[in-house]
Every structure is written in structure tokens, then in C-alpha cells.
Amino acid sequence: MSFMAKPKVAHPDLPKNSRGLTRRDYEGANSTLCAGCGHDSITAAIVEACWANAVEPRTLVKLSGIGCSSKTTAYFVSGSHGFNSVHGRMPSVATGANAANRKLSYIGISGDGDTLSIGLGQFIHAIRRNLNMVYIIENNGVYGLTKGQFSASADIGTTAKKGEVNNQAPIDPVQLALTLGASFVARSFSGDKAQLVPLIQAAMHHDGFALIDVLSPCVTFNDHEGSTRSYEYSREHYEEAVHADFVAPAANITVQYGEGESVPVTMHDGSRIILRKVDSGYDPTDRGAALARIRERLRAQEYLTGLLHISTNQPEFHQLNATPDMPLNQIPYATLNPGSAVLAKILARYR
Amino acid sequence: MPYAAPDRVNDFVIKIGTVNGTGSASANGLLMKAVFRSGVPVVGKNYFPSNIQGLPTWYEIRVTRDGHRARSGQVDIMVALNAETYARDLQEVTSGGYFLYDSTWPRPALLQMRDDVTVLGAPLARLCNENFNGARTRILMKNICYAGVLAALHDIDPEVIRALLTETYAKKPQLVDSNMKAIQLGYDYAKQHFDCPLPLRVEKMDATRGQIIIDGNTAAGLGCVYAGATVAAWYPITPSTSLMDAFKGFAEKLRADPATGRKNYISIQAEDELASVGMVIGASWNGARAFTATSGPGLSLMQEFIGLAYYTETPTVIFDVQRVGPSTGMPTRTQQCDIRSAAYASHGDTRQVCLYPANPEECFHFAPLAFDLAERLQTPVLVLSDIDIGMNDWMCPEFKWDDSYVPDRGKVLDEAELARIDKFWRYYDHDDDGIPQRTIPGVSSKGAYFARGSGHNQYGAYTEDSREYQVVVDRLRKKWLTAARMVPKALIESGSSAELAVVTVGSGDAPAREAIARLRAQGVKIDYMRVRGFPFGEEVEQFLEAHQLNFIVEQNRDAQLRSLLTLETGVAKSRMRSILHYNGLPLAASYVIDGVMAAVQDHARPAAQLVRP
């Protein structure tokens, strides 16, 4: 980690997005994670995606639980409100926040411990509600802040730094999300910014729960020979299923991507993501096929990455609850208050 | 020490014992309302099992011309419809009382168990079997039939009952006829076979004008609608569920656009209480008025999150409808057993603002107050009701709404205010009242801050610096002192120079007031205080210090209110003596009187000094 304060001065020639902001405008506080941590690469990818999507910082809300991953919400977009809640309970805070104001965009950062052990219940219920948010799991298979215990995503046979061998089957958040009916499911690798940035961009435009499970090596506790989350292991066992790129509505999508090589998917907000099929048999709109393919590759000890599943016709949380377009936190009290005359009428039934 | 007036007109207790799930609730409600509509004050208490069908259940109607609001502690007529509980039901009848049972199956042995109780047998099942078809109808009508018997016995006007049935079944008029037929069957049987009316009779009065009959959960749910709450998150738990049902029911009618079906509120059934309070925190942080309702086990689960809300200074409104603990306890019985765990909810140095309503009227008015305080103080506010208040039928003055009410959103900086200031510091004490300024997400990047449960300094940044940490927690203590000036003051009745006082909280109010009235009538000089908020205002300590002996009346085993008074005031423990009631039934005035009199007689000084001739 660095103890030097970041200078706030930006070079005048830094490229600006359509909002006139540079990448520096999407940065946050200095990271306090270990040098070389995969999580910092994910933070950088989020900064890049927010810049590329020209997000207005005040409209973004950052939420997290507890753990190394959950600290990172402080490290990007300092112009956004953030809430670092309690261990495993970020989804409920995100649900409440989203309930109060549907117009803001919500990004939750969690880890494999925060999501798959203490927070498993809230995680799956956020999926079930199809809460409109981006949910990133920074997945390193290990508890970092408490110094190296296995997490629920650790593979069988993984050894801890001190030699202990894990013999319990892992929980795979991607398969779990698919079986629960999640509407956007992706997996990536923290060291593959070219894939991760467009996935985050697409997830931010998805209306509903968008999960990105990002394999993120822990350099301190899980980057050794017995680990299946090391940089070396991940790079060797990595298969890209679909390359997703995100193009803002203003851009011309057909110019950049040739016919025949891509499957375009129209998002709710009119923007489109283009899926380039690396494996021509893969259809990300087919949930069953996605699960089968993921399992098949897992049997071969390979992580299938990319946009693994998307469905754009599932009603999200607010649609399911029939709330108005105006955010609930902005409805004037005069509209909410029935008044004294109505009260008298109501109470007449209690006489 | 049960109390009975010399003549029993408009002053007696009917208790009805039935089997859960047989539909007796409507008959009991009908009877109670009929007395109420006759202008006579009533108290309704429901003792029900944690069960859907099959276990014994009782309903008690106290007819009280003096307008008391508690149980009296006696039973003048027992309506026994559950053969399984005949023996204990008969034992419970006060000497000189009556025992009405279904004589379709005669129980001659019963007649000999108590020679001081008059046994009345009415063949309810036979009457209904002869006059109605279908098993379900016969069971339902048997209940209405006993209401008819009681109408004759107690001289309740059948026309009042007819009017009530007509209102209830406005959309199904055929049900009015069948119900009235059952009423008439019972009424006529009683007239022919018993000496009607009994001395325990209803005589029309004019003492219920401007009053309503309502339960505290309905009142609190309605209060949340009026408070402008838009986000409700909850997990089903007895006895708080009906509070949320009420909120949803009223909001569905008052807040939904009939044309589009879009709703100006959201009700989220959470996966557990941890999630429900997390949702409230998220929604409140994001600027909505949000609340949850729960009971003891749920409050235990919420502890960690309550600490987060306390330390991040996020408004959080929680209704805790207390039930018997510990653990699962007796979920349908009443206690005031969360006083301590609510006051000090969560680990670390935390103290929580609590409100203690005593009746449905206060449940209604404390709802907007809870939101105002939570937003003004930026902290959790726990409203501690209980089963007695929340689920029983209370006669209380019709609620009035002040149309000039404006929600107090507290120190929230809007975009213009943020533009004027140089820098926004989330946890800085600008006003020297311990309350910082707050911003809502989405308004301005200038107001952006990072809420965290980890150590933070007054500017809102992460810290592990000892001094910076202490600045914030010391300010939180200052805020606590500010809170003591904002919560509702204790209600005090002390005109005399009494050395004795009764101090209580919440549902202890009604029995304590009745006890005080009776004690004073017997010449005991005694004052009264009811605590309504935590932290305690200075008036609480002053009152306790001003009395030689304070009887702390509460409904738990471990004297939780007395513990709080001991910890939070400088009053000597010897000045506070407990009267504790914790069997799960609502407190009766007689229990308080007995407790006071026993102590008075035990007191070091002769009782004569305390009791005036």
C-alpha cells in the first residue's frame, strides 16, 4: 500500500468522456490492500468502466460488506456516496437503498467469504428479487483479513499457505446464480481488463441483478503452488466463452463488429451489448446450456469466462413491486399524507 | 385483591373459553362492540395460544362504568365452551359468579365442584344442530348463539347487535339473518330458562362518545402511513405481523393509484430480521422514511445492524412488539422483557433512543414522532409496544391528526446548501448539540461520503487514530444528552406531598392508574410517574428523588426498567422497590395494589404513617 496522498491535479491532455471527465475523476482514496492484489485491478477496471460509461458520479451508489474486497468501494469514484455495511449483509442495505431511489445506479462489491458464507442468504434473496444492481464478487478463495482461512469457494484439494488441505466442495456463485434465475451472470479474471471492463459496462446498463464473479488472486495468502486461485493457475486454466463488448447508444455498433461473428443483445435502456462468440456453440440466452457448458468446463478444471447468461425480459425489483417512476424518497409528504378528514373516515369503522 | 363494586351494573367481567380455530373471535368482538355501542366503557383481552387450531383460547370482556382500561383480575361469568378446560375455568370464577356451559352434553359432576358459583347450562350445540345445516355453519353459529344467551343474561339490547351485524355484513345481507337467528335462539332460551337479567347487567350510558375500539398494532401501522413512511421491510413474527398488515392494508387503500396500480410505498418481506433492518438502514440512509416491526427474537438478530446504524448515524425506526422470552418463549403472551436489550442494543458503547407507548393512541402518535426523532438525531429509535397493547382491543379517544404537521427531516443538506459551504464534513459538530449534518445520495458529489462501521474521524474518513476515534464517540455522547431533551417527557401526577410513588412504563399504565385510584380511595397518599422515553429526562430523576419509596411496576422477571433507572440516574437503589409481573398475562390493577399494600405493611415504619385513616 502507498502512504502518499494522491495529487488531485490531472494532466490537461488526459482524455475526457462525454461528460467532460477524465479517468482521474473516477478514482477514489488510495488502496490499502497488498501490492499486486487482484482486487486493485478490479478497482481499476471499475474506474475505467465508469469513465467509459460516462457515469455521473453523484448518481452512483457504492455498497459493500466486510473483508478485503469490501474495502475497495472507498478506492473508486470518490464523488459517489458509499456504504461499507456489516459482514455479509450488503445486499439488504442495497435493497433498502434501491427501494428508496430507483433512479440511482448501485454497485456492490463483495468477496467470496462475504457472499458465499456469512452472506449467502442475502445474496440469493437479492437475486430472487432481481434487484437492479451490479454485484461484483472479488473471489480469491481465501479469507485475507483474518490471514488465510479457506473460503466456501476454495476448490477441493487446495492447500492453505500453512499446508492444510481443503476437502469440502466449493460453492460456485455463478452456477448458484444461474439456478436461482439471475438475469445477468458473468465471470472474469482480475488480470483480464480487456474482458472485465466491458462486462462491468454492460452490467451497469442491465435492468436487474447483474453478477460478475471475478477470480482475483490473493498475492499474500493464495498465490502459491497448491492454490487454484493463483495468478499462474488462473492463467493456465482459463477459457473465454464469449467476448462481450459494450457500446454506448450513441456509437455505431455495426462498424466495429462484423456480422456472423457476433450476437447482439438489446438492453432495457436501449443500449446494446455485442457478444462475440469465441465458441460458436455457446448461446448466453440459454440458461440451461450455459449451466451445462460451465459444468463441462469445470470438470476439465477450466473456468468459463465472459457473459455466461443474460435475459433481458425479467421484471426487476421495482417492476415487481409496482412502485412509481418517481423515487420513493422524492414523493412530497403532501402526497403521502392522507390528512385529518380521511383519518376521521377510517376511524369511523372502529366505533 | 380483586375488586367489586357493591352493585354490578356495568361493572363485571365476562370470560369466554373456547377452542382455537372455531371462529369465536367474531362473536366475542360482537359482544364487546355491543356493550361499547350501549355507551358503556369496555376492555377486551385476548389470551390465545401459539397455534392455528385446537388449543384452548380465552377472551375477556371487562364492562367498566368507571372507564378503567386494564384487567380487573377477576371473572364474574365464565362462558365455558371447551370441555378440556371446564375444570380450570370453573376454578377461576370469582366467588358469587356464574359458569355458563354447553349442556348438550350435561356434566352433573361440574355442578358440585363449586357451591359458591351458579352453573348455567344452555344446549348450544343442540339448538344449532336443530336449526342450521352443515358442520362448519353449526360450529360458527354456536358462537353467535352464546352471544345471544349473554345478551339476555346481561340485558344487552338485541337491536344494538342487529345494527352491528348489519354493518359487518353490509355486502352479505343473508348473513345478517342467519346470525340474528342464532342470536335469537340463545336469547330466547336464556329468557325461558334463566332468571334474566342477572345482577351483572348492562345499562345504557353515554360514556363512549368520541371513543374508538382499536388495537395498538393497527394504530401504529396507521401512524406510519401518516408519518410518510414509504419503505417497510419486515419478517413475519408474532406479535408484530399485524402492525405490518395494518400498514400495508391502509397504504394499499390510500397510497395506490387506482388507475395504474402503482404504489407510493414498498413493502418488502425480507428473508430474516437481519435483512429487514438492513433494508431499513439502506433506505433511510438514502433518504426515505423506512421502518420495520419485530419482536424479541427479531430484535436479538438485529443487534449488529443496530450498532451500525448508531455508529454511522443512520435514522432507523424499529417497532418492537414485545412477547414473552427468553428465546422463543411464549410467542402469544405479553411481557416487557426487551427494555434492557433495546436500550443497549448492539456491542460496543451503544445506547439507543426508545419510546414506550402505553396504549393504541400513543402507538399512533409515537409513529411520526419516532421518524422525527430518528431523522433529527440520526440514530435508531425503538418503539417498544407489547402484545397487550399491540393485539388487544382498547377503547381510546378517537385519534386526531394535525394537518399542519411537517416531517422533521433533520439536518439534511440539500444541493443549494452544499453549494454554499466550502467542504462537507459528515461527522462534524457544527451546532454544539452533538448532531452532525447529513447528505442524501444522488444530490451532489460535494456531499458524497463513505458511511462505515469501522473507525472514522469527524470528517468522515477512516481512522485508527486514538484521538480522532474519541472525538467522534464523545460527540455521540453529547448527542445522547441532546436526545434526553427531545424524547417525550415522563407523565407525572404528583399534586400531594406523598412519600410513596408508583413508577411504570408502557402497558403498566392502565393497571397502575386504576391501582392508584383505588389506593387513594383507601387513603394511601401516592404519586404516579410513567416513563415514556429513553434517555430519561431530568424530570425522571427528580421525581424518584422526591419520593421516599418508588414502586417500579413492570412486566418482566429481572426488573429491567429498575435496572435502567439505577444505571442512568443517581437515585439510590433502596428508593426503588420492584413490583414484577411476568406470567405472560396482562397486568391487573389488583396485582399492583397487593404489591404496594404488602410493601407498605412491611415497611420499617408503621403502616399507619403511610395510610391515612
Written overview of the protein:
The complex is a heterodimer of chains A (351) and B (613). Chain A has 13 helices and twelve strands. With 351 residues, chain A is of the alpha/beta class. Chain A has one domain (23-335): Thiamin diphosphate (ThDP)-binding fold, Pyr/PP domains (Rossmann fold), CATH 3.40.50. In chain A, the strands form two sheets. Chain A has a ten-stranded mixed sheet, sandwiched between helices. In chain A, helix 2 (68-71) links the parallel strand 1 and strand 2 (81-84). In chain A, helix 1 packs across helix 7 and helix 3 packs parallel to helix 5. By secondary structure, chain B is an alpha/beta fold. Chain B folds into four domains: 11-209, Pyruvate-ferredoxin oxidoreductase, PFOR, domain III (Pyruvate-ferredoxin Oxidoreductase, domain 3), CATH 3.40.920; 219-397, 3-Layer(aba) Sandwich (Rossmann fold); 415-486, no CATH class; 491-610, Rossmann fold (3-Layer(aba) Sandwich). Chain B has a seven-stranded mixed sheet, with helices on both faces. A six-stranded mixed sheet of chain B has the order 2-3-1-4-5-6, sandwiched between helices. In chain B, strand 2 and strand 3 (56-64) form a beta hairpin. Mean pLDDT of chain B is 94; it is low at 606-613.
